[in-house]
Every structure is written in structure tokens, then in C-alpha cells.
Design goal:
The chain is mostly beta strands. Helices cover about 10% and strands about 30% of the residues. The strands form five sheets. A nine-stranded antiparallel beta sheet has the order 13-14-15-16-17-21-20-19-18, with no helix packed on it. A six-stranded mixed beta sheet has the order 8-7-12-11-10-9, with no helix packed on it. Strands 2, 3, 4, 5 and 6 form a five-stranded antiparallel beta sheet that branches. The model is unreliable at about 1-50 and about 50-60 (pLDDT under 50). MU-OXO-diiron binds near residues 140, 229, 322, 433 and 527.
Length: about 625
């Protein structure tokens, strides 16, 4: 099930002038904001911001991007630059067990458990040796139109179970042979984690009353993970899978009043897209009002131990998680940046209490259980599109997180993290998707994919960090923690790119985008991002692929490569019809890149007439480093 946002493309951006639309208008017209030969107000910014050094470099050709960019495309294929190869690595329904049944729409749930899951999203390549690795991949969702030959018109308990088996996480071993990295179907670590795999809840919310159900009076034992969007990984060898739109899997046979605290998370009564509640009472919010609180977490998985129980790390907060960008801070604490992908929701950060111990891997196993959760507040400097920011602590007893305001303990703060964020005055954002940390600097980037409610809904007024009304194209914000200390409460921020259409809108219109957007690299709705070893920023899109109107010239969803220093952005890959491009990971030498084609709708990777989500392997004909 795709959750592409088809915004209402109303062209009312400048019809209701406001301070911020004036600001961006001035700023963009003054040199379209990211102009690197700084003039006008940009001088002040470059002189005072710690991000300045990076952005004042000459806008000459990037020294890190070496490929020849490709044109936008509407073809039903994956297109890569000259000298590059794109080959399927594994697709939905491919066997991951030696005796798996061949994929078809009449497979059983057990058949699906032995196959690679549907709608691959975030993934991590975990090397074991020069010739052996493990690949952990999220299977975000499934689509009844392709899963069932009756398109899900009728459901049964078995069909619901198969749907639950199609999602979660797939873990497969890879082998490096003459053909490069390929899946080893016999790999002893191959494993499927589904919506019914036993796991445990750990951290401050474990055992809390809001997590207790009829099946689990302890509030610590939970079945399954689903809507696993993006991901993260740890230096102690584990994989982090992030639960996003879990609300869509809950419903009720009867119409009931949904508690306000759950409605904030999108929980609705009645039928929805998946209707698991019709055959699995766990998903009926009337029968099990607390089950939904057991989803929306970051889950830590040990891919090296196929018998290990995944752990839901409640200290990282409950919301519609996108990815988990983890770094070991200068003081050895673990810092994880986390986006909540919903219009007007927030950007978070977790800082561990204990320090990472590189010499004792087993000592790090539960570092994500204890620490401090924060949420971001962005402030504008003198009305400009950059400024300072502050991480507001989400700790019971502080910042108004008290019983008078509905918070009785830390468990309630993390379970209802969205409400806690509102209580402390966090900035509402344009759908924070992935966060990525530049390994060559201390800068952190976050995609704000789009937001049709920005400047339209009362609770989503324009702000400097989210300055465009009805933000149909999205932008990428970046910040630098004070003194390079990711545990610091203060940061400085600016906007790396405003996506836009400079072919359709003139430079005075914010919809033309920032200086680093031109007719040759236009895109909309940035979503997946990640850095490679050399500090190239890879940007993937999940947006409007109509190639018409406001989106004319952008073509299918795509992947671009950005130079974080010069601001230069070049198109690297275009996806097939109907897909989004999501998920990226590299072999340690950066000579193999894996990316995901999710929910194609044409004939891409077709088997038995069904287009299939696929992990693609990108290599160079000359065996070189990707992007160099
Ligand atoms: Fe699963 Fe926000 O993308
Ligand atoms: Ca998706
Ligand atoms: Ca996404
Ligand atoms: Ca998206």
C-alpha cells in the first residue's frame, strides 16, 4: 500500500501574504537563498552561522560527484548513468529458504514466511567478511491489489495471516562471488520477522498499564512489527527497524469513540485499508484498546542470531517513525535522531545515559533503554530562513510534563510522545522523513517531504524552518550541533535545498525552489537520504510522478546525489512507473549500492503478471566507487 501524498495542487501560495512568504520571497529573489556567492542578507548568515564554512565554498563543480547526471524519465525501468549497472538483487516473493514455495497470489501465510517480504523500504548491509554479509530489509507494507487475486474483496483469517506474513523485516545472507554480492538462499541467518513474531517491550514504558492487553497482562510481550518504514543500525551490530503508519492496521467491528490521545496517532474505528481486526481481535480497538500503544516504536533486532527476540525500545518515543540516524557522540554517548512523518508533527533526538564501549560489544546491548528524549524547536534569526534551535527535554516532571497536564510518569511521556512534544512547545514540521548525519562533518540533514496543511491549518502556521504555504515540493533542512556535540541542547540550522520547479515558476516565486535547483535536477518530495563514506548525500523521492502541472519535468520518482559543501545536486537514478525509490545501503568499499524500488505499478520485476517491489544492486562497469 503506497502512502504517496497526492496533494491538492492549489496555487494559492502567494494569495495570502504573510511575514514568512515575504521572507522567502525576498530571500529567494535576493539570490534564491542558497546562492553561494553570498550577497545581501546571505552575507550576515554566512558570517555568523557555523554552517557557513561549508556553504561559502565556491559553487564550482563538485569534487565528490563524478558521474554524468541523467535526465528525468517516465520509462518503466530503472535508469542509471553511463558506466553504471542496475540489477535486481531480490524481490517480493523470492525464496529466502531452500524449500520455499514459488511466489503466487494463492500462497499460504507459511509460504510467504519463507519468501522475501513485500514493499521493501529501509535496509542495512552488515558485513561479516570480504565474501559474506547480512542484509536486513524492512518490508513496510503490502497491497491487497497485488497480494490477493480477488484484490482483497473478501477476507479470511488465512488471508489476514498472509498479509501479516508479507510485512515486517527480511534478513538474508549475501555472498560475494564472481557476479558480485548476491543472495544466499541457504544462508543460516536468513529469517523473516512478521506482524506476529514474538518480541519484547523494553525501556521506560515496559510494563506500563497502557501497554497491557488480555493476551499480555505484563505489558512487556508483544507480537510483531509492521509498517516498518526506514531503519538504522548500531556499531554493536544490530539493526533498527522503525514502525511508521501502524494506525492503518487497527479498526473495529463496531463504531466506537476513539480516545483523543489515540486519535492524535490516527487511530480510527470501523474498517480501513487492511481490516486485520475482522479476523484478529488484537487489532480491534474496542476489544484491545491498548494494543495500538504497543506499536509505533523503534525495534532493535540482532540479525546475527536468528533465534533472538527483537526489542521495542520505548525510550526512543512512540510516533510514526521514519528512520533512526545513530551516531556515537564525542563523549561516547549514543545519539539517535528520529523523524515523525506526519504533517505538523515533530523532529526528535535521543541521548543515551551510558556510554558506548567499543572494546566490549556486549556491554552496549541495552544502551537504547535508558537516556533522554528531546524534541526540536527551531527559531528564526532576524526573520531569515536560518537561525538557532533548541532541543527541548521530554522528561516527566520537567517542561510541564506533569500530572496537571496529563502526564503521570515517563511511560506516559514516551507512549504519548506527540502530546508531550506539543506540551513543551516543539516546532511543527512539514513531515520529517529520514535524518542523515554527514560522516565528514557534524552536520545533520532531514527531509521534510511536503505538507499541504502548512500555512493552511491553524495549528500549522508558517515558520522559518517550514516557510512555504502548501509545501507541495518539500525541502531538506540541516543543522549543526553546538561545538559539534550532538548531546548539546543548542544547534544552528539552515535549509540545504528547497525543491521546486524553476521551469514553471519564476525566481521570485518560492515554488521555483532554492538556487541549487534547476530544470535539469528538479524533483519533489525528498524522503530517503543517506551519506556514503565520502560524504556524498544521496536523496530519494516519494512524490508526485505525474510529470505534469506543478510537477512537469520531474518524471518518475528518483534518486539524486548532493554535495553537502557546494549545494550541487545531480540526478543519479530514475525509477519505474508508479514506484517510490526508498532504502539505501552500501558495501563497506562503497562499490556496491543497494536501493529499493517500492510499489511499482507497471510491469517492473513482474512475476505471474504482478509487478513487485525489488531491491536493486547498483555497481560500476569499471568496479569503481559509486558516485565518485
Ligand atoms: Fe514510510 Fe514516511 O515513509
Ligand atoms: Ca512507502
Ligand atoms: Ca519514507
Ligand atoms: Ca514518503
Amino acid at each position: 500500500m503506497s502512502h504517496i501524498e497526492h496533494d491538492d495542487h492549489s496555487n494559492n501560495l502567494l494569495s495570502t501574504p504573510s511575514d514568512f512568504s515575504k521572507i522567502i520571497d525576498n530571500s529567494l529573489s535576493r539570490r534564491r537563498f542558497l546562492q553561494t556567492t553570498a550577497v545581501g542578507s546571505s552575507i550576515a548568515f554566512f558570517a555568523t552561522s557555523p554552517l557557513a564554512n561549508a556553504m561559502t565554498k565556491k559553487h564550482s563543480d563538485s569534487t565528490v560527484i563524478g558521474f554524468n547526471p541523467i535526465a528525468a524519465s517516465t520509462s518503466d525501468t530503472v535508469v542509471v548513468p553511463k558506466g553504471y549497472l542496475a540489477q535486481p538483487l531480490i524481490a517480493w516473493g523470492d525464496s529466502i529458504k531452500p524449500k520455499a514455495t514459488l511466489f503466487s497470489q494463492t500462497n499460504s501465510a507459511t509460504d510467504q514466511e519463507n519468501q522475501f517480504g513485500d514493499n521493501n523500504d529501509g535496509m542495512t548491509f552488515l558485513p561479516l567478511s570480504q565474501s559474506r554479509a547480512v542484509l536486513a530489509v524492512n518490508n513496510e507494507s503490502t497491497d491487497y491489489a497485488t497480494l490477493f487475486n480477488d484484490h482483497g474483496k473478501t477476507l479470511t483469517a488465512e488471508k489476514v495471516r498472509r498479509s501479516q506474513a508479507a510485512v515486517g523485516v527480511s534478513i538474508v545472507e549475501l555472498r560475494n562471488d564472481q557476479q558480485g554480492w548476491n543472495v544466499n538462499v541457504d544462508g543460516r541467518l536468513n529469517r523473516r520477522i512478521t506482524a506476529y513474531t514474538p518480541m519484547v517491550l523494553t525501556g521506560p514504558a515496559a510494563g506500563d498499564q497502557h501497554l497491557k492487553t488480555n493476551a499480555d497482562p505484563t505489558g512487556t510481550q508483544v507480537l510483531g512489527t509492521f509498517n516498518n518504514c526506514a531503519n538504522g543500525s548500531t556499531p554493536w551490530g544490530t539493526y533498527l527497524t522503525c514502525e511508521e503508519n501502524f494506525d492503518g492496521f487497527f479498526g473495529s467491528k463496531n463504531d466506537i469513540k476513539v480516545p483523543k490521545r489515540d486519535a492524535r496517532y490516527g487511530i480510527k474505528s470501523g474498517d480501513g485499508d487492511f481490516n486485520w481486526h475482522q479476523f484478529d481481535e488484537r487489532f480491534d480497538i474496542q476489544k484491545e484498546p491498548n494494543e495500538n500503544h504497543r506499536h509505533g516504536w523503534v525495534v532493535e533486532i540482532d540479525p546475527m542470531n536468528p533465534n533472538s527476540k527483537p526489542k521495542k525500545r520505548t525510550a526512543l518515543g512512540r510516533f510514526k517513525h521514519e528512520n533512526a540516524a545513530l551516531t556515537i557522540n564525542q563523549d561516547d554517548k549514543v545519539v539517535v535522531y528520529l523523524g515523525d512523518d506526519e504533517r505538523g508533527e515533530h523532529l526528535y533526538k535521543f541521548v543515551s545515559k551510558a556510554k558506548y564501549n567499543a572494546s566490549k560489544p556486549e556491554a552496549n546491548r541495552d544502551l537504547l533503554d535508558e537516556g533522554t528524549l528531546y524534541v526540536a524547536k527551531f527559531s528564526a534569526q532576524d526573520g531569515e530562513l536560518y537561525g538557532n534551535g533548541e532541543w527541548l527535554e521530554l522528561t516527566f516532571g520537567k517542561n510541564g510534563l506533569t500530572p496537571e497536564n496529563g502526564f503521570n510518569n515517563q511511560a506516559e511521556v514516551v507512549i504519548f510522545a506527540r502530546q508531550a512534544a506539543t506540551q513543551v512547545g516543539a516546532t511543527t514540521m512539514d513531515r520529517p522523513e529520514w535524518v542523515a548525519i554527514n560522516p565528514k562533518s557534524d552536520q545533520v540533514f532531514c527531509t521534510l517531504t511536503n505538507n499541504k496543511n502548512r500555512g493552511v491549518k491553524e495549528n500549522q502556521a508558517l515558520n522559518a524552518a517550514n516557510p512555504r504555504e502548501n509545501n507541495i515540493y518539500g525541502h531538506i533542512i540541516r543543522w549543526e550541533p553546538k561545538n559539534g556535540n550532538h548531546a548539546a541542547h543548542e544547534f544552528t540550522w539552515d535549509i540545504y535545498v528547497m525543491a521546486g520547479n524553476p521551469d514553471k515558476y519564476d525566481a521570485k516565486n518560492p515554488r521555483s525552489g532554492s538556487q541549487n535547483i534547476n530544470k535539469d535536477n528538479m524533483f519533489n518530495s525528498p524522503d530517503g537520504i543517506g551519506f556514503d563514506n565520502a560524504g556524498r548525500l544521496w536523496i530519494q523521492t516519494d512524490g508526485d510522478y505525474s510529470n505534469s502541472g506543478d510537477f512537469a519535468g520531474m518524471g518518475n520518482n528518483q534518486m539524486l546525489c548532493g554535495d553537502p559543501n557546494t549545494g550541487e545536486i545531480k540526478r543519479f537514478l530514475t525509477g519505474p512507473t508508479g514506484c517510490e525509490i526508498t532504502g539505501l545501503t552500501f558495501s563497506p568499499d562503497n562499490k556496491t549500492m543497494l536501493i529499493g524500488v517500492q510499489h511499482p505499478t507497471g510491469s517492473f520485476s513482474e512475476l505471474n503478471g504482478i509487478p513487485r517491489s525489488t531491491v536493486m544492486k547498483i555497481t560500476r562497469e569499471d568496479g569503481g566507487v559509486i558516485g565518485a
